[in-house]
Amino acid sequence: MNVFFDNNISPFIACAIRELSKTEPSVRTVIHLRHRFPASTPDLEWISSLDGKWVILSIDRFTKNNDAERLALRQAGHTIFVLDRQWSGQTFWHQAERLVRWWPQILGQAQMAEGGFRVPWHHSKATKFQTLRL
């Protein structure tokens, strides 16, 4: 699986997840938007520029150009995990710690189903991802 971190998540967190994911045979690539595109690249442009299917992590609600972005995500077949609103108010270290906790469940969900999922801030092994309508 290929994993893409949107610009609203730290590239340092993406690099840490890439290193930790080297133990996961299902994960081939983990990149941050800034490693492939300029930081200011509009969502529609990078969504449609990714080759193949990707697992995308973002805090973005994809509400700018809502219909066009959601259509592009559906057409490309990307699976998206949107970090809940509470993530954006957290410090770098809290975000990193929490994403590492969620990572095994995110990978498991990405292998089982395509589509869009909301990742809550509060972590529990029993917590289910809420399905997003794309």
TrEMBL record:
Pfam families: PIN_10. This is VapC45 PIN like domain-containing protein. Residues 1-84 form the VapC45 PIN like domain. It comes from Pannonibacter tanglangensis.
